[in-house]
C-alpha cells in the first residue's frame, strides 16, 4: 500500500493534470467555434466530461475516499473524451484545407503558388512534412 504522502502527491499530480486538461479543453471549445455545430458539440462534451472528472476527484485526499463507481465513471469519461478527440482530429483532417491547418508553420506552402520555384535553402533545418 502506498504511504499517505505518496498517495497525497499522486492525487495532487492527478488534479494538476486534470486542471491542464481542462484548460486545453477550454481552448479547444473556443477554437471549435469556427467549425460546424457537430464539432462544437463534441468539443463541449469533452470539456463537460473533464469538468465532471475534476468535480469527482476535487475533494479526495486519499484513494480510499474514491469509490469504485467514481473511478469507473472517471475512466469511462476519459475513454469517451479520447474517442471524441480522435473523431475531431479525423474531421479536421478530412474537412479543413491544408493551408488553414499549417498556417505560419510552413509559409512556403501558403505564400507561394505551385508553379513558382521556392528557394528551400532559407528553410534549412526546418521540419518538413511528407
From TrEMBL:
Keywords: Lipid droplet
Compartments where located: Lipid droplet
Keyword flag Cell inner membrane: no
One annotated GO biological process: positive regulation of triglyceride storage
Highest taxon above the source species: Eukaryota
The keyword Transit peptide is annotated on this UniProt entry: no
GO terms for cellular component: cytosol; lipid droplet
Annotated family: Belongs to the perilipin family.
Name of this protein: PLIN3 protein
Originating species: Quiscalus mexicanus
Amino acid at each position: 500500500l502506498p504511504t499517505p504522502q505518496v498517495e497525497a502527491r499522486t492525487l495532487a499530480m492527478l488534479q494538476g493534470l486534470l486542471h491542464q486538461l481542462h484548460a486545453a479543453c477550454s481552448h479547444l471549445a473556443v477554437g471549435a467555434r469556427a467549425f460546424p455545430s457537430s464539432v462544437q458539440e463534441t468539443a463541449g462534451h469533452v470539456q463537460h466530461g473533464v469538468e465532471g472528472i475534476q468535480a469527482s476527484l476535487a475533494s479526495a485526499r486519499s484513494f480510499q475516499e474514491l469509490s469504485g463507481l467514481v473511478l469507473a465513471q472517471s475512466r469511462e469519461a476519459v475513454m469517451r473524451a479520447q474517442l471524441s478527440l480522435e473523431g475531431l482530429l479525423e474531421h479536421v483532417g478530412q474537412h479543413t484545407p491544408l493551408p488553414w491547418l499549417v498556417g505560419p508553420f510552413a509559409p512556403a506552402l501558403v505564400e507561394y503558388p505551385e508553379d513558382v520555384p521556392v528557394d528551400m535553402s532559407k528553410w534549412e533545418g526546418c521540419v518538413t512534412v511528407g
